[in-house]
Amino acid sequence: MRLASTLLAAISLMGTVSIAQAQDKVLNLYSARHYQTDELLYSNFTKQTGIKINRIEADDNALFERLKNEGKNSPADVIVMVDAARIWRAEIEGFFQPVKSAVLSKRIPANLHGKDDGQGPEWFGFSTRARVIVYNKAAVNPADVATYESLADPKNKGKVCTRSGSHPYNLSLIGSMIERNGEKATEQWAKGMVANFARPPRGGDTDQIKGVASGECGVAIANSYYYARMLRSTKPEDVAAMKNVGFIWPNAKTSGTHFNIAGGGVAKNAPHREAAVKFLEYLASDEAQTYFADGNNEWPAVKSVRVKNEALESLGAYKMENISIAAIGKNQIAAQKILDRVGYK
Description:
This protein is 46% helix and 14% strand.
């Protein structure tokens, strides 16, 4: 009888272990990335590890609200965001937990690490993108729009197009300008931008590039990967459009171009922490880093990775601004207040 009980207990324990092992083969990913090309990135991770990825994809506000509502019961294992403003906000909200990983510490540059109180960084940047200037070759002298600041010059009245000022991409840019030039000068710049609009802010970055190509806009701000994506497009209309558009690395001779990141970290209450760390380490691998460049025209965070993307290579060398993600993040509130005061919707 005692032997039977022991066997039953052993079988029960084996069943429990099997269930636990099965559960460890799952990763719950909350992601603000919305690129269809990421499908291959996820499927390759599953092929290599056997870990199935369950995804929740939404914009940052929806993810933040979901994480707040779920609290300690959140099933999220990894949280991925696509802008310094969003990542900083997630850090401030306490959505991440520290991670000590020799792989991540070695491969991801220290300036792309989140807050570290001695237990390891709370997030890591895995790719970078630049906020660049595009202009209509027939209508605009590139020397007149060589810096972010020059877009607010009266000589560019009626030429400037952007997406919403309150979009995180622009909030981060303005946050960096506050850090570099101060709030007073940045507010004057924002007033000049509003005065120079060719039309009210609307659409995404691709819309700004197309507006420049059509002549609706003389000059616009866009993320670099949107520009590279259109350069790589084989659609006749895109090929024709890009013949009309020029590209500028803003502030190349002064402070450098504003760069942003896509990054993520392990969720504070991750039920599958080991799988979560494996996923972050995978994102720092040569394979995944190359994919960020080939799949979405972003620059790898790992400096040793070399990619062959003709569109990115055609943009040439650049000078990156030296402003921390934390500084950009803490300036978000001030940036939004400036936008509100000057009517930059």
